[in-house]
Design goal:
The chain is mainly alpha-helical. It has one domain (about 45-210): Rossmann fold, CATH 3.40.50.300. Helices cover about 45% and strands about 5% of the residues. The protein has 9 helices and 2 strands; from the N terminus they run αααβαααβααα. It has a two-stranded parallel ribbon with strand order 1-2. Helix 3 (about 50-60) packs parallel to helix 6.
């Protein structure tokens, strides 16, 4: 995997990075990698960008892509906690949700590629995945669940490893623990806000189920 783990490459997302060219990308993130190795990188915001999908398809036509989706209500609240933890959010969650569209329109240029206040829209997975499904073959796309990192980590690791074509090593998933401090707990999410947000996701989740088919275990209400 591309090193260091932080910062993420975001090469196909950021205009300034992409302008440096593929040779820069290769040298910056994969210098010294043996040609026999399977190489990859993790940039979470690629999912949000149709432009990134287009750039990846042009540059890496045989790439294999993995998307890990979290139940959207919990994802939105975790996003809110992360933004608040980093000193960018001063509103309560319900107010922040109401302000989301306005904030997106008025977003400063410096936050163009981080979009810290996009709590609801980042959970519209069917819309976000569509550009990738339009540009890549089915065997190039693996969509899995974030919850499986906790509930069935070894099975998830083996699924990913078989998908990318390496010998299964499920023990690699042992001891993963908490990945993001803001993912620890959503007990602070008010019940009424949770219900309202879940209702907003009913139709988007139906479209996601239709896109992914029965092989993807949808979250229960």
């Amino acid at each position: 995997m591309a090193k260091p783990v932080k910062p993420e490459p975001k090469f196909f997302l950021r205009d300034d990075e992409y302008a440096k060219g593929l040779q820069y990308y290769s040298d910056r993130w994969f210098s010294g990698v043996d040609a026999s190795k399977v190489a990859g990188e993790k940039s979470t915001d690629y999912l949000e960008s149709a432009e990134a999908a287009s750039r990846i398809s042009r540059a890496l036509s045989h790439v294999k892509l993995i998307f890990i989706l979290r139940e959207p209500v919990s994802r939105a609240y975790s996003n809110y906690l992360w933004t608040k933890m980093n000193g960018l959010e001063t509103e309560d969650f319900a107010t922040a949700l109401k302000l989301e569209e306005q904030r997106e329109r008025e977003l400063p240029e410096k936050w163009k590629f981080t979009r810290p206040f996009s709590y609801f829209s980042r959970g519209l997975y069917a819309d976000l995945l569509e550009p990738y499904f339009n540009r890549f073959m089915e065997h190039q796309l693996l969509v899995t669940r974030f919850e499986d990192i906790v509930e069935r980590p070894r099975a998830l690791a083996e699924t990913v490893q078989r998908y990318i074509g390496v010998e299964p090593r499920p023990q690699d998933a042992d001891g993963l623990g908490v990945i993001n401090p803001s993912d620890r707990d959503d007990a602070g999410l008010p019940d009424d806000v949770r219900r309202d947000l879940a209702a907003r996701y009913v139709e988007p989740n139906r479209r996601l189920a239709a896109l992914l088919g029965p092989s993807f275990p949808m979250w229960t209400a």
